Amino acid sequence: MMNIQRILKHLVTAERHVRQVFTPTRLEHIAHTIKASEMQHSGEIRFAVESALEFRPLLQGQTPRQRAIEVFSDLHVWDTELNNGVLIYILLADHAIEIVADRGIDAKVDSEYWGELCRGIQAAFAQGQFEEGAKTCIQAVSQQLIAHFPHNGGGKNELPDTPVVVG
Prior knowledge:
The chain is α/β, with parallel strands linked by helices. It has helices at 4-12, 15-21, 24-38, 55-59, 64-74, 103-106, 111-126, 130-148, and strands at 44-50, 85-91, 96-101, 164-166.
C-alpha cells in the first residue's frame, strides 16, 4: 500500500535540509570523532546521511533498512579484512536511523544493542542535537569494536573517515 504522507515528506525534503542539519563543520567534527575512534580498534565506521529517497524506490516502498543496506554496499563497508565495518545511516525524511554491521562484528554484538543505539541517536536528533547524537553513537559503536577488535598495531585505515551525504 502506497503511503501518500511518506511520499510527500520525501518530495519536500530537499538535499539542502541535510546541509542545514549537518553543516560542513558538524560533518568535519564527526569525521574527527571517527578518526579518533579508529585509532583504538581495527574496525571501520562510516557515517552516511540522506535527505530523502529517490522517487522510484519510494514508490516501491523501500524501507530505511533496505536503503541502509544498499548504502552499506555502495560504500564498500563490507570490504574490510576482518569484516568489521559498521555503517550509521540517517534518512532525514523518515527520521530514521539504521546501523548496518558487517558479519564479523554483527556475530559478536546483539541486534538489540544496535537498536538501542538507533533509539538513542533518534532521541538526540529529536532535541536538535545532531552532532552530539552522532558522536555519542560513534563512541558506542567504538566501544563494541574496541571490545571485539582491539587495535592490532597495524594502523591500517581501510575506509574513509569522512561522512557521506548521499544523493
